[in-house]
Amino acid sequence: TVNETIAHPRDILPPVVLHRAHGFLLVHNHPSGDPSPSRADRDLTRRIAEAAALLQVNFLDHLIIGRPSPHHEPYFSFQESGLL
After folding, report:
1. In whole angstroms, what is the distance from residue 71 CA to residue 23 CA?
2. Nearest Cα to 16, choosing from 57, 51, 54, 61?
3. Nearest of 21, 11, 3, 22 to residue 48 by alpha carbon
4. Which end of the chain is more exposed for a tag (fewer CB within 10 A), N or C?
5. Looking at residue 1, what is its pLDDT?
6. Residue 82 zone, left/alpha/beta (φ > 0; ψ -120 to 50; rest)
7. Own/partner pairs, 49-52, CB within 8 angstroms, 24+ separation
8. What are phi and psi of 13, to 5 degrees?
């Protein structure tokens, strides 16, 4: 699997600022079905959280959507996992 992301805070945060949002959440899917966060997902979440804090906007959660499986939940929440 590829462990990189093309997402960048400069691409994600302008709509939040433009719409004067009080808060936002980030959602993406893993086509593999396993919603476990990659290193790139963790790095992106950290960078988005830092940028949101500078802009004084609430970064509510980063959700990764996968598929239901007996081995994992169908999603991963950075907030629920204590990583945000």
Report:
1. 32
2. 57
3. 11
4. N
5. 44
6. left
7. 49/84, 51/9, 51/13, 52/13, 52/16, 52/24
8. -80, -25
The answer to whether 65 touches 29, Cβ cutoff 8 Å, is: yes
Entry pTM: 0.87
- Span 36-63, mean pLDDT? 96
pLDDT over 50 (residue 80): yes
Q: Name the phi and psi angles at 26, rounded to 5.
A: -110, 135
pLDDT over 70 for what percent of the chain?
Answer: 94
Token representation of residue 26: 């980030």
